[in-house]
Amino acid sequence: MAGQSAAQSAEQSAGQRTGSTPMVVVEDVRRSFGSGERTVHALRGVSFRAHRGQLTALRGRSGSGKTTLLNLVGGLDSPTSGRIEIDGTDLSALDEDGRLALRRDRIGFVFQSFGLLPILTAAENVGVPMRLRRVAPAEREERVRTLLALVGLAGHADQRPGELSGGQQQRVAIARALANEPALIIADEPTGQLDSETGRSVMELLRAVVRSEGVTALVATHDPQLMELADDVVELKDGRIIDPS
């Protein structure tokens, strides 16, 4: 109960700081693939909200629709029907250039497979999104140093991914996701390739980042042990949200 009270207090404080509008609004979203008898209904009328300054976990078995939902929220795909709003922007109102700008400027992505460029150092990997935005070198280097320190890797800036552990690589990926100061972080099974202890430390880092950076995080996971670290949990089964009651 005490944990719930703390979470409620955090939500109220976040609401006072940023207003009551949720960061993510998903309304009756459906996504189907194929046609006729071969149609696959990946999402079947999903609705939920992710609040600003909180970590929302998407829970469900493989095939429940978690990744499909994250791709839609991140603007990587479009729903068959329904509405998705990110930070007050209706995704259906954006053309492809608008979606690209949204992903570049407002959303940070963290993947299960880390997604780091093997020939670049940790610092260079973190700096890639800022290079794409043509951030001035001095500003970029300062931001990289700050982010590597934030994720506990200040002493590993010059190491390449192959010289880092899985947990360290995922920390680099989190720092990279924060490079352009996004409003929303989307993480798809970020602990999936890590042992349980390292996975928990990465999830704790994500929660700490949400608190310190004031971002919103939407994290897909199938690990029930990580649910206690989330402010809110949305459970999916067969493309539908399960009512926790």
UniProtKB/TrEMBL annotation:
<feature type="domain" description="ABC transporter">
    <location>
        <begin position="24"/>
        <end position="245"/>
    </location>
</feature>
<dbReference type="GO" id="GO:0005524">
    <property type="term" value="F:ATP binding"/>
</dbReference>
<dbReference type="Pfam" id="PF00005">
    <property type="entry name" value="ABC_tran"/>
</dbReference>
<keyword id="KW-0067">ATP-binding</keyword>
<dbReference type="InterPro" id="IPR003439">
    <property type="entry name" value="ABC_transporter-like_ATP-bd"/>
</dbReference>
<dbReference type="InterPro" id="IPR017871">
    <property type="entry name" value="ABC_transporter-like_CS"/>
</dbReference>
<keyword id="KW-0813">Transport</keyword>
<feature type="region of interest" description="Disordered">
    <location>
        <begin position="1"/>
        <end position="23"/>
    </location>
</feature>
<feature type="compositionally biased region" description="Low complexity">
    <location>
        <begin position="1"/>
        <end position="16"/>
    </location>
</feature>
<dbReference type="InterPro" id="IPR027417">
    <property type="entry name" value="P-loop_NTPase"/>
</dbReference>
<keyword id="KW-0547">Nucleotide-binding</keyword>
<protein>
    <submittedName>
        <fullName>ABC transporter ATP-binding protein</fullName>
    </submittedName>
</protein>
<dbReference type="InterPro" id="IPR003593">
    <property type="entry name" value="AAA+_ATPase"/>
</dbReference>
<dbReference type="InterPro" id="IPR015854">
    <property type="entry name" value="ABC_transpr_LolD-like"/>
</dbReference>
<dbReference type="InterPro" id="IPR017911">
    <property type="entry name" value="MacB-like_ATP-bd"/>
</dbReference>
